[in-house]
Amino acid sequence: MRIDKSTVSNYNQPLLAEHTRKFEFVAAGIENIEVILQKLIDFQIAIPSWALGTGGTRFGRFPNGGEPRSLGEKMEDIGLIHALNQSSGAISLHIPWDIPQNINATKELALEYNLRFDAVNSNTFQDQLNQQYSYKFGSLQHSNKLIRRQAIEHNIEVIDHGIQLGSKSLTVWVADGSCFPGQLNFRHAFQNTLEGLTEIYAALPADWKIYIEYKAFEPNFYSTTIGDWGQSLLYANKLGEKAYTLVDLGHHLPNTNIEQIVSLLLMESKLGGFHFNDSKYGDDDLTVGSIKPYQLFLIFNELIDGMDVKRMNHATDLAWMIDASHNVKDPLEDLLQSVEAIMISYAQALLVDRRELTANQNKNDVAIAQEILQNAFRTDVRPLVAEARLRSGAALNPLDVYRKEKVRERLIQKRGLKSLTTGL
Fold first, then answer.
1. For position 59, what pLDDT does the model report?
2. Which of 37, 171, 235, 391 would give a disulfide with 119, using CB separation of 3.0 to 4.6 Å?
């Protein structure tokens, strides 16, 4: 289904007067308001093809119905989200869950929904139907060279799909590791993985990037071969200038200072991508900003500071993507809420007076430096985000339009109550 601009405009009309009042009140205190609004308009967050169906846990999955049954239907759902917020103009495909059956038709559909193809993602953390060798004990790290070869060839196949779609990057998440002491040799696992990544890196086109994701635990619980940002950075440095670290907010041990990590990776020009979600205990993959909104703001504060120092384009020089799993929510509603939370934190961080902050940091005025950050965080920037949407032709209240248009009910009517998405 589709929601056209005239429908969105009709929903916006009765909200305009109140929106204008709130926007003008906030905007009156911001000198560079037009610059900030343009940055918000330009900023786009990729939606992964696997986030459009109901997620789950080891204990169960509770589908909502109306889930996308094909890549085309997944693109339809992302197009719907983008029509409502105009901030979700990219799709990130996971291979082999979403191999395009017809490249030209898939590209035409992307144009139709005003979408581009973000990073393509490989999968060596699952065994697929008719797969020759199992990844039960690892993929790129495996002691068996044939299994390592299978994982390498899969990643090269993913690159080939990405080239045809116009993607420019490959994301590699290696779930390899061990569950028990003595299960593997750490050095051999690292070296085997490096050899495999080196072959994959060699297959990259000249204008591509590879993002190396890390995770502290799960599905292996004693060790993971790429367990933290230092190990990812080590691989990226060994591979070359096209290799970068990818940060997923959930892939850290509790209370890790993620904002410091992104600051240092930017300093080293090795931060390539960012996966947004939120967590209370581990890799919970909850709605962005639902648990730790202040941490998200602090991360954006460091992202903006580091990118501005290097004169990077906020919208295009890093890969931005949501990576979440939804067990009790309508996944499309969850994605709308996540995008909103990202835009709010980004807007708050854009309000920070960096010259004043630096001056007080240099004077060691701890209290005032803290006040500068907290004043930006406590500013209600929702009218700014809404104004950016309005100027882009999107909904002032995307979630409200989604509900009033009975999107989930209409998707169930079209696709069925028992439809299940491919992937997770």
1. 79
2. 171
Residue holding tokens 């939606």?
A: 47
**Of residues 54, 73, 66, 64, the one with CA closest to residue 416:** 66
21, 386 Cβ separation under 8 angstroms: no
Residue type present at position 339: V
367 contacts: CB under 8 Å, gap ≥ 6: none
Q: Give pLDDT, residue 325.
A: 84
User: Residue 368 has which token pair?
Assistant: 């005032």
**Could you give the angle at the alpha carbon of 225 between the alpha carbons of 220 and 231, nearest 5°?**
135
90: nearest Cα among 286, 335, 333, 262: 335
The residue whose two tokens read 């635990």 is 217
Question: Mind spelling out the 3-state secondary structure of the chain?
Answer: CCCCHHHHHHHHHHHHHHHHHHHHHHHCCCCCHHHHHHHHHHCCCEEEHHHCCCCEECCEECCCCCCCCCHHHHHHHHHHHHHHHCCCCEEECECCCCCCCCHHHHHHHHHHCCCEECCEECCCCCCCCCCCCCCCCCCCCCCCHHHHHHHHHHHHHHHHHHHHHCCCEEEEECCCEECCCCCCCHHHHHHHHHHHHHHHHHCCCCCCEEEEECCCCCCCCCEECCCCHHHHHHHHHHHCCCEEEEEECCCCCCCCCHHHHHHHHHHCCCEEEEEECECCCCCCCECCCCCCHHHHHHHHHHHHHHHHHCCCCCCCCCEEEECCCCCCCCHHHHHHHHHHHHHHHHHHHHCCCHHHHHHHHHCCCHHHHHHHHHHHHCCCCHHHHHHHHHHHCCCCCHHHHHHHCCHHHHHHHHHCCCCCCCCC
Tell me: the pLDDT tens digits for 384-412?
Answer: 999 999 999 999 999 999 999 999 999 99
- What does the chain come to in residues? 424
Give phi and psi for 398, each to the nearest 5. Answer: -55, -45
**Considering the entire predicted model, what is its pTM?**
0.97
pLDDT in tens, 21-64: 999 999 999 999 999 999 999 999 999 999 999 887 777 888 88
